[in-house]
Each structure stands twice: as C-alpha cells, then as structure tokens.
C-alpha cells in the first residue's frame, strides 16, 4: 500500500489547508475518505512516497478506527475493503525519512533499518505528483 504527502483543503476551503507530510502521511485509500469529508476536489498535490505491506481488510480496519465505520462504509461500501491500495504509475522516493503510521516508527523508504545512516546522506529526491482518485461513493445529499 502507498503512503502519500498531500494538501487537504479543510472543508474545501482554499484558505484552510493542511499539509499531510512524511511524518503524518495519508494512505492512498484514505484520500477517498478525505474527499468525502472535505469535498471531491479537496485533496491535491498528492505525492506517493512509501510502500508498505498492508492488506485491504487491515487498511479498512485502520481507517474505520480513525474516521468511523459509517464514513468508511459510505466510501468503500458495506464491509468491503479498499480495492485500490496503490497509486497507479507512482514513482516512489528512496531514502526519504518518514513516520510509518502502521508502526509509529521512523523509517527510511527503500532501505532496511540498518541502512538508515546511509539513506540520511542521500540528497536525491524523486517526486511525482499523482492525480488523486475520484470519489466513487453514492453519497445522497
């Protein structure tokens, strides 16, 4: 599953923006939930940067704990897990320091934990902004 940095326009307000950075990233499936909460165009500048092992059911459970089952069910339907855990055509950044929300630990992308010192010396950063997924929930308003 991919974790991403992104700009989140709180309530769709262009003057109230939260930047989900490497130390508080959002998962690729989480973007759909944020779009439901804040509006369809509320998430932009999405840059996938880390890949972790996470199953669809485990991610659904994590998101339900964070946002509530009702919101997660509205986005993904019933008890279904997210069907897309990774951003298409993502170019991930090796050597980026980040906090893994699944473990709470500081890690380095693309490196074993023992290689953290080497990664900290890396200055090359690859960033590719990805178009966020479009909300597919059947929300009635």
Low-confidence stretches: 114-126
- C-alpha end-to-end distance: 31 Å
Strand content: 15-25%
Number of helices: 4
Mind explaining what this structure looks like?
- The protein is α+β, with helices and mostly antiparallel strands.
- It has a domain at 2-52 and 87-120.
- It contains four helices and six strands; from the N terminus they run βββαβααββα.
- The strands form two sheets. Strands 1, 2, 3 and 4 form a four-stranded antiparallel β-sheet that branches. The protein has a two-stranded antiparallel sheet with strand order 5-6.
- Strand 5 and strand 6 (106-108) form a beta hairpin.
- Helix 2 packs across helix 3.
- The longest helix is centred in the middle third of the chain and has 12 residues, at 56-67.
- The radius of gyration is 15 Å and the shape is globular.
- The N and C termini lie far apart (31 Å).
Fold topology:
Blueprint: E1 2-9, E2 17-20, E3 26-27, H1 28-38, E4 43-51, H2 56-67, H3 69-76, E5 97-99, E6 106-108, H4 116-120
Antiparallel strand pairs: 1-2, 1-3, 1-4, 5-6
């Amino acid at each position: 599953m991919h974790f991403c940095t992104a700009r989140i326009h709180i309530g769709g307000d262009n003057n109230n923006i939260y930047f989900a950075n490497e130390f508080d990233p959002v998962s690729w499936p989480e973007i759909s939930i944020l779009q439901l909460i804040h509006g369809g165009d509320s998430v932009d500048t999405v840059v996938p940067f880390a890949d972790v092992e996470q199953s669809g059911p485990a991610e659904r459970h994590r998101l339900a704990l964070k946002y509530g089952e009702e919101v997660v069910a509205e986005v993904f339907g019933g008890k279904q897990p997210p069907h897309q855990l990774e951003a298409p055509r993502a170019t991930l950044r090796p050597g980026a320091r980040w906090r893994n929300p699944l473990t709470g630990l500081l890690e380095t992308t693309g490196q074993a934990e023992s290689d953290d010192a080497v990664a900290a010396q890396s200055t090359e950063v690859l960033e590719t902004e990805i178009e966020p997924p479009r909300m597919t929930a059947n929300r009635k308003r």
